[in-house]
Amino acid sequence: MFKKTTLAASLAVASALLLSTSVGMASGTTRTETATAPAKASAVGKPRAVNYARMRPEALAEHLIFNTDSYDLAQPTQEGTTGRDRLTQDETQKICSELAYKRKDIDGKTAEKIQALAEATIKYPEGGIKLGDWKKGRELAWSGFGFRTAHNPDRHGPGREPGANCYNCHQLAEDRMGGTLGPSLTGFGKLRGSSPEMLKYAYDVIYNPHVYFACTSMPRMGANGVMTQEQIQDVLAYLFDPASPVNK
Amino acid sequence: MLKKALRALPVALAVAAVAGTSAAQAPEDVLQALIDKHESAYLTQSPQNLMMMPDNPAYDLIEQGEALFKQARGPKNASLEKCDLGKGPGVVKGAYVELPRYFADTRQVMDLESRLVYCMKTLQGFTDDDPAIKKRHGSDSDMMKLQTYIGSQSNGMPWNPPMKHPMEKAMRNAGEVMFYRRSGPMDFNCATCHAQTGKRIRASVLPNVNVPEEWTKAISWPAHRVSHDHARSSQHRVLECLWQMRYPNIKPGSDASIALISFWTDAARGQPAIVPDLKR
Question: Which of A40, A48, B64, B82 fits a disulfide with B89 by CB distance 3.0 to 4.6 angstroms?
Answer without folding.
Answer: B82
